[in-house]
Specification:
The protein has 201 residues and is an alpha+beta fold. It has a single domain (2-151), classed as 3-Layer(aba) Sandwich (Aminopeptidase). The protein contains seven helices and seven strands, in the order βαααββααβαβαββ. The strands form two sheets. The chain has a four-stranded antiparallel β-sheet with strand order 1-2-3-4, with helices on both faces. Strands 5-7-6 form a three-stranded antiparallel β-sheet, sandwiched between helices.
Length: 201
């Protein structure tokens, strides 16, 4: 069963993200940091998500936003106090993370298309439930939500070396548009264009 993501799903979603994508930047900052970010995304009108529930637990989720740059700015401005303690703890253990924090803050400005502001931020599925079309179902729900918001094109970034993720996006209708380097790693940027056109009154 797929339902809209809310605060009660955040803890399990964070754990899935950390286990599924341990090399990604946000999971590297730890559970507490990730939880604040997820709750902030859902709190603001710019972000939304969906979860797949099986046997009473979250087994997959997807998070997206209507304007990545504005969302990042809102989170930093309004949630800096909640973010700073878990962030400092991680930086003290690994000072090199400070450079990645700087890159992340300026990522929306440097790497985002001026035309496309909406973005699929993260999608992850529990390892025991992969290859069961949960990811495809989550994307379909996301597409329907974007249409409700009158948004007809969005992007997603993924490590170029993550072959499974790249194949997933290609097989689900995403089009590879460009690549960029962040955290000294190459990312591919895919775009998805929704076919349904806006209805006129």
């Amino acid at each position: 069963m797929i339902e809209e993501m809310n605060e009660k799903h955040v803890a399990q979603a964070c754990q899935i993200h950390i286990e599924a994508l341990p090399d990604s930047f946000l999971p590297m900052l730890g559970y507490d940091f990730l939880k604040v970010v997820y709750n902030s995304i859902l709190e603001y009108n710019l972000g939304f998500g969906f979860v797949c529930i099986k046997e009473g637990k979250v087994v997959g989720f997807i998070l997206a936003c209507k304007n990545t740059g504005k969302l990042f700015n809102d989170i930093i401005k309004k949630k800096w106090f909640a973010l700073i303690l878990p962030l400092l703890k991680k930086i003290m253990r690994s000072p090199s993370l400070l450079i990645r924090v700087y890159e992340t803050i300026f990522y929306p400005k440097k790497e985002k298309s001026e035309e496309i502001q909406s973005e699929l931020l993260v999608i992850a599925v529990d390892k025991d439930y992969r290859r069961s079309k949960i990811g495809k179902d989550l994307v379909n729900y996301l597409n329907a939500r974007f249409l409700q918001e009158n948004i007809y094109k969005y992007s997603v970034s993924v490590y170029s070396t993550n072959m499974h993720a790249n194949e997933f996006y290609k097989s689900n209708g995403f089009r590879l548009e460009r690549s960029f380097t962040l955290y000294d790693k190459e990312f591919n940027v895919y775009e998805y264009e929704l076919k349904e056109k806006r209805k006129t009154d």
